[in-house]
Amino acid sequence: YCVGQASSMGALLLCAGTKGKRHALPNSRIMIHQPWGGVQGAAEDISRQAKEILKLRDKINEMLAIHTGQSLEKIVKDTDRDYFMSSQEAKEYGIIDEVIMPNKKQLNK
Q1: Catalytic residue among 23, 28, 33, 67
Q2: Is 65 helix (H, G, I), strand (E, B) or coil?
Q3: Does residue 28 have an active-site annotation?
Q4: Number of domains in the chain
Q5: What are the angstrom distances between the C-alpha of 65 and each of 1, 16, 95, 108?
Q6: Annotation marks residue 8 as catalytic
Q7: Distance from C-alpha of 55 to C-alpha of 69, rounded to nearest angstrom
Q8: One pLDDT digit (tens) per residue for the chain, 109 residues
Q9: Residue 86: φ, ψ to 5°
């Protein structure tokens, strides 16, 4: 369930959940993007970390494509920068299965 916001790895965990059980509330936000981080140290250490981040980016993109049904090309394009979605947009994208609507009887109490 996404009750507020699922971003970055949280969005990946949400979409990798059991099909049919991936839900979000109507005002939730979901955001996907490529991994990022800061690196410092010797040049060789920086080079190794950069290679590892690129491998991680490729793996995350593959997993998003598998779990959403989107093409890898679309995932690569969309994750190039922060890509924000409403819960309805996340449903259409394939990240969640259902937007949970409040019970009208409970709202009228």
Answers
A1: 33
A2: helix
A3: no
A4: 1
A5: 20, 10, 10, 41
A6: yes
A7: 21
A8: 999 999 999 999 999 999 999 999 999 999 999 998 778 889 999 999 999 999 999 999 999 999 999 999 999 999 999 999 999 999 999 999 999 998 766 556 5
A9: -75, 170
Q: Of the candidates 12, 16, 18, which has an alpha carbon nearest to the alpha carbon of residue 79?
A: 12
| pLDDT on residue 105 | 62
- The one catalytic residue in 8, 28, 47, 86 is 8
Q: Which two tokens stand for residue 46?
A: 């920086």
Global pTM reads: 0.87
1: nearest Cα among 54, 17, 64, 60? 17
> For position 58, which CATH number holds?
3.90.226.10
Domain that holds residue 67: 5-107
Q: Please report the pLDDT score of residue 103 as a whole number.
A: 77
Rounded Cα gap, residues 104 and 93, in angstroms: 27
